Amino acid sequence: MHLNLTLVGLLAIAVGSVNAETIRIAIGTQDTTVNCATGGLMIRELKLLEKYLPHEGKYKNAQYDILWKNFTSGAPLTNEMVAGKLDFGSMADFPGAFNGAAFQKAGKQSLFINVLSGSTLGSGNGIVVPKNSKVQSLAELKGKIISVPFASTAHGMLLRAVKAQGWDPEKDVTIVTQSPEVAGSALQSNKIDAHADFVPFAELFPHRGFARKIYDGSQANAPTLHGSLVDADYAKKYPEIVIAFLRAAIEADKLMTAEPEKYSELIAKTTGIEAEVNYLFHGPLGLQTRDFTWKPEYRQAVKTSIDTLHLMKRTEINLDANAFIDDQYIRAAFRQEGLDYDAALRNYAKAPLIGKDADTGKSITNFNHLMQIWVAGEPLVRNYASPVAAFSELRKLEKSGRKIRVVYAHDRNSGLKLFASDAWFVDAKNDISAFLLKKSADAWAKQHGGTVCDFNAARANANS
Fold it and tell me: What order do you get walking across the sheet with 289-290 strand by strand?
């Protein structure tokens, strides 16, 4: 009897081993594209996916093999997804559209399942020039050499911006292909007149001191986004895993909202992209909005990207954007997290700033003049409702020998978050306003009075 029971037990173990499935979860990330952090880097580094993976029903005996692979752009990530080496991937609207077309050409299908971060106006993409360039606007680049990562979302922005100038991209400018890494060196050696790029390079290069931003994607009023894609066959087979991945992303988003400085430092530690740049995107009132919902503007961005791919003759595939974008999984993830997807869909607000003026201690309710100072050695960014107060405190900090990591300002017209050191200011009767573009500052000064000056002059004037 004892022998029979032993044999039954061994048989049960053997059957269980046969039935136990090892499920691969292969995820392609773009770590240095820092607005993708909540859909990749943070999930990986904080091991959030493991918290949500199913272990019931058909997954009762499942073992998970989670694989991560990092890329610097969307095209090679797409190649590995189409080849079946990856199940998930994060990328922008333009390479995302190419992903869908590449899958379709291979007789397969991928799905764009959620947005991670973006701008309904187009912020995130941008154009920079060498620091010592006299160029102040896109209009001055006619006849010049502009580099861009080919087939990127920044490429699509550049083509639209050139078209808006009434120029022929084949004749009026010379557009060359350059990765961000190559373009950085080219800007420093003045081998190119300008460089167009995606997150975070139009901010990173100025922050590192060798470039100056002259154009923000919002000037083209063309929505842009980064989001997550999945192999449709994989999603059909393992829908619960897709939802688990998205729930992990939602938790990452909550963590970032609660402690943006802390997680900006995590991104910096992992990627080498400075925390000051990461906070520009992920901090309150950031350059882009972390938003997981498929707003009409983001759906249109994908459709526009498909059309642009055709114009560039990059594909002949007629990709149906309505079938390609699939929101059922993110809606399910919201439900499981007790969140209202439709309410989030209607919400266009950036991550709010809920804080007090470091000078007066009063809550900040008007953000037209908001400035922020990140002091070295301090874990949190200081907020100032008045540029005058911010500049005054800046002088005291510097006089006492404190090191300043970064100062942020906001464009008076657009609300765009800026590195104050590269902004233009209008000083008018103790009322200081910041602007991305000199022509915007000139126009404001003409209409409202005041003197146009750079950051150093504004700081000196405020303290005189």
Answer: 63-70, 22-29, 88-92, 224-231, 110-119, 289-290
Tell me 187's DSSP state. Answer: H
Rounded-to-5 percentages of helix, strand, coil across the chain: 45, 20, 35
- Please determine, for residue 32, whether its predicted confidence score (pLDDT) is greater than 50: yes
pLDDT digits (tens, 9 = 90+) for 364-373: 998 888 999 9
pLDDT in tens, 174-212: 999 999 999 999 999 999 999 999 999 999 999 999 999
pTM over 0.85: yes
Confidence band of 48 (pLDDT split at 50, 70, 90): very high
Beta bridge partners of 384: 371
Paired strand residues for 406: 374
- Helix then strand count (H, E) for the chain reads 19, 18
Average pLDDT, integer, range 269-289: 97
Phi/psi of residue 409, nearest 5 degrees: -135, 175
Tokens for 70? 């990092």
72 torsion bin: left (phi>0), alpha (psi -120 to 50), beta (else):
alpha
> Are 177 and 148 a contacting pair, CB within 8 Å?
yes
| Cα distances (angstroms) measured from residue 291 to each of 65, 133, 304 | 29, 36, 19
Q: Determine the distance from the C-alpha atom of residue 381 to the mean position of all C-alpha atoms in its chain, rounded to a whole number.
A: 20
Tell me the per-residue pLDDT of 53-73, one tens digit each, with 9 for 90 and over: 999 999 999 999 999 999 998
- Sorted by sequence, the CB contacts under 8 Å of residue 236 that are 6+ apart come out as none
* Max Cα-Cα span within the chain: 100
CA distance 10 to 260: 53
Rounded-to-integer distance, Cα 194 and Cα 322, Å = 36
